[in-house]
Amino acid sequence: MSQTPESKEEKPAPAPTRDLSKVPVGQEQNEAEAGIRAKAIEAQLKKALNVPADDETEPSPTKTHAFWGTQPVPAKPSEQVKSFEEAHPLEDVEEKMKHIRKTPLPLPQEFEWFNLDETNDEQLTELYTLLRENYVSDSDAWFRFAYSKPMLKWAINAPGTVKEYKCGVRVAGTSTMVAFISAVPTVVAVGGGEIKAVIIDFLCVHKSLREKRLAPVLIKEITRRVNLRGTFQAVYTAGTVIPTPYTAAHYYHRSISVEKLLDVHFTGIPKMMNVPRLKKLYRVEDAVETPGWRKFRGGDAPVVREKLNEYLRSNFKVAQLFKTDEDVIHSFKPRPNIVYSFVAESPTKDIDAFGSFYCVTNECPKSDKHPSIEIGYIYYYFTNGRVPLVELIGNLIVEAKKVGMDVVNALDVMKNKEMFTELKFGKGDGTLNYYLFNFNIPALQPEENGIVLI
Ligand SMILES: CC(C)(COP(=O)(O)OP(=O)(O)OC[C@H]1O[C@@H](n2cnc3c(N)ncnc32)[C@H](O)[C@@H]1OP(=O)(O)O)[C@@H](O)C(=O)NCCC(=O)NCCS
């Protein structure tokens, strides 16, 4: 997953503790029984993972990261290479190939692996529910991500992905899903070169099964599946710091629906401000004025692919690339409430600029006024200069308002910092750490990073 809880300026009251016993996981009868079962599951998971039980572990340099300490990632910042000339995989592929396990990692007997079929509505609903109830929320529980079913279907089904990359865990013999992780193939430009990789997303473990080492089992299992298909690198993001981020990006927010965002405590009223002044400050035009501005169409894919890749390659040290027209169409063809993309055509019909944003609903469980807010995330873009970046992103804000977004979020990756002040983005308190699996690169500034994950 690519997200981090939303920021807000005022701290609301702490959230009431959620009653997990109401969550239908397995057949727990009472707390004592559930406790014993949880211990047994944890021991079995550790066995599956080859992690010693806590009381057997000697103090060691990997003590603080029992799992990540065994993985091909730099253990700490001092182990990151200093230049792209030195960038390298941390594990030898040929050696690795000899030892790839052919069968899935064992799970405790209560659980089983399954490949999520997103065309099956019942299974898609299971995923939606798992994420809605257990995925990322802010620490005060004012907001929680609620990726819609069509959004999830789109995100986990990028071209080239296979059913084994939609990796679920459910209670054996039932449809109750308790964990998930997904991978989609991509190509990443690194320094001057390219690596074949997957994007790992939507890692989620049910709240009642947390801290039982199930996440490492999921990560090892998806790694095995991806390795079996000949890919040995991955890109992923997390709000938490694990070994070792190559960059840390920060979220910025551009208010659109001022009163609604105040109502749900997404933003507060700064000193010397009041609601009418804030509304005036964040007023958004009704229409885009850039000549030649129009929605992206499938027929634009070849030109957009070429220009976008060129922009990403030449401006950023690490970037996602879009290798086929199918990738571009999948990622950017406008889909209501999922993704919106636009181009600016010159009078000679050249595409001078391209911009996109994707949409995520954030539920507001504590608000009695609004059930949710809609957030547009600045996604990929390029411009050749005829349309300045401020104008391009400004246009995306107008388009976001037109389709009902309440706020536009952007990370300080790519060239976004150049437009934050003029377009009135404010810094939030969310940080998103970026990681590469099995590839050691130097630490980067976020503006050197050209990757935006869903
Ligand atoms: C992230 C999540 C799956 C971790 O599960 P958990 O039950 O807390 O942790 P487990 O006991 O299973 O495993 C702990 C190991 O996973 C690692 N881990 C925790 N979060 C991780 C993440 N987002 N990505 C990769 N590894 C992670 C821990 O560092 C630890 O390994 P270590 O001992 O080497 O440090 C779980 O907290 C969750 O579902 N959170 C909500 C969704 C979410 O934040 N997903 C990640 C998207 S950014």
Automatic annotation (TrEMBL):
Region span, Disordered: 1-32, 50-76
Catalytic activity: N-terminal glycyl-[protein] + tetradecanoyl-CoA = N-tetradecanoylglycyl-[protein] + CoA + H(+)
GO function term, MF aspect, one: glycylpeptide N-tetradecanoyltransferase activity
Residues annotated as domain Glycylpeptide N-tetradecanoyltransferase C-terminal: 263-445
Domain of life: Eukaryota
Gene3D superfamilies membership: 3.40.630.170
Domain Glycylpeptide N-tetradecanoyltransferase N-terminal: 94-247
InterPro entries xref list: Acyl_CoA_acyltransferase, NMT, NMT_C, NMT_CS, NMT_N
Functional summary from the UniProt entry: Adds a myristoyl group to the N-terminal glycine residue of certain cellular proteins.
Similarity comment: Belongs to the NMT family.
Descriptive protein name: Glycylpeptide N-tetradecanoyltransferase
Organism of derivation: Blattamonas nauphoetae
